Structure to design on (371 residues):
């Protein structure tokens, strides 16, 4: 065999090997095709899935989507590419279940090896490290857990008050998971992934239960709400500084009646309010809150016909941003319906803020008026 022939064979197999290593996300999918066909500011129904209803049906007759509305898009790690996941449980179930949508099979399923012994609902008490798809979950027992593909591992327990109806979010630029608890006053803490420790951030915050917390990878900010009885918005920057917004939401931004996630185009936080069926856009860098108008009957969510109890929008509806396709997915477990929303807006320039050593990590005592 000549040297030329050997080199040709090596090059040929090298091309084949490189092709096999291409991300699966490049394959065509129903999700990708529909997203590509959508115009900015429009809705489209992805489908109605019996597999979604089956995957979310809990042993107690309820569903995993109840009192929780967060999904996360995965790209790498244990879960692989092209999946959007949710972790939650029904009202009286003793376990949280990992439910996922696979864009390449266009179906929903339950990850059977990821059951977690947390009781009642997940609210906004789990988050994902998108660099490796590790899932972090905070249980009502104060147990803090990490799932890296095969099993749950116990981490440093939550040191604050009863961790009910609270919110957490992974903030990669700070190397921390942030957690806000309004059940026992106004408790804000951060968990350091590198040394497995919790830190009391201190300060005073107008937060209650059922609050929400969202990371924007474009603005590089974490935004959290006031929850029940509060219209306050707070912003955490890359220096771990916490700032109260000068804007207030028109209604309480809370898990039960509001859907929210970041806009994959601008990085702003999009707030879907069930009270008047409007979308608000919050920019955490410019500190602006804009009314984008009504989303009408798209998707066809009404308080009367698909939720139980009817006054809570959070029963059975969750959402998650899919940055690879510039859309937000909203799924509802009663009908198995799944919709996409493609936001409109001008892409945001990258954040150039240089992180500095945080100066506000000393804890302050809680006054009697905060309890």
């Amino acid at each position: 065999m000549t040297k030329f022939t050997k080199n040709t064979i090596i090059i040929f197999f090298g091309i084949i090997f490189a092709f096999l290593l291409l991300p699966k996300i490049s394959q065509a999918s129903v999700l990708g095709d529909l997203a590509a066909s959508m115009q900015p500011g429009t809705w489209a129904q992805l489908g109605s899935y019996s597999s979604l209803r089956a995957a979310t049906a809990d042993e107690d007759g309820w569903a995993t989507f109840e009192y929780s509305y967060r999904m996360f898009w995965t790209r790498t790690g244990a879960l692989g590419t092209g999946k959007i996941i949710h972790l939650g449980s029904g009202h009286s179930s003793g376990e949280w279940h990992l439910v996922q949508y696979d864009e390449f099979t266009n179906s929903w399923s339950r990850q059977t090896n990821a059951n977690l012994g947390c009781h009642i609902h997940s609210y906004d008490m789990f988050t994902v490290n998108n660099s490796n798809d590790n899932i972090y979950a905070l249980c009502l027992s104060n147990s803090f857990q990490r799932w890296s593909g095969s099993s749950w591992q116990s981490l440093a327990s939550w040191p604050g008050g009863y961790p009910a109806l609270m919110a957490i979010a992974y903030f990669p630029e700070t190397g921390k998971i942030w957690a806000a608890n309004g059940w026992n006053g106004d408790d804000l803490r951060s968990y350091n992934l590198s040394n497995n420790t919790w830190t009391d951030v201190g300060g005073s915050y107008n937060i209650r239960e059922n609050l929400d917390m969202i990371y924007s990878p474009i603005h590089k900010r974490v935004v959290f709400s006031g929850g029940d009885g509060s219209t306050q918005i707070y912003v955490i920057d890359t220096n771990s500084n916490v700032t109260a917004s000068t804007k207030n939401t028109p209604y309480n931004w809370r898990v039960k009646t509001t859907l929210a996630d970041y806009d994959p185009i601008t990085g702003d936080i999009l707030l879907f309010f069930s009270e008047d069926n409007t979308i608000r856009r919050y920019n955490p860098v410019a500190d602006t809150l804009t009314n984008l108008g009504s989303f009408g009957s798209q998707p066809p969510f009404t308080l009367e016909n698909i939720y139980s109890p009817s006054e809570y929008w959070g029963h059975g509806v969750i959402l998650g941003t899919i940055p690879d396709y510039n859309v937000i997915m909203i799924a509802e477990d009663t009908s198995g319906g799944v919709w996409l929303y493609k936001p409109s807006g001008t892409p945001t320039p990258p954040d150039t803020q240089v992180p500095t050593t945080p100066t506000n990590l000393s804890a302050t005592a809680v006054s009697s008026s905060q309890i």
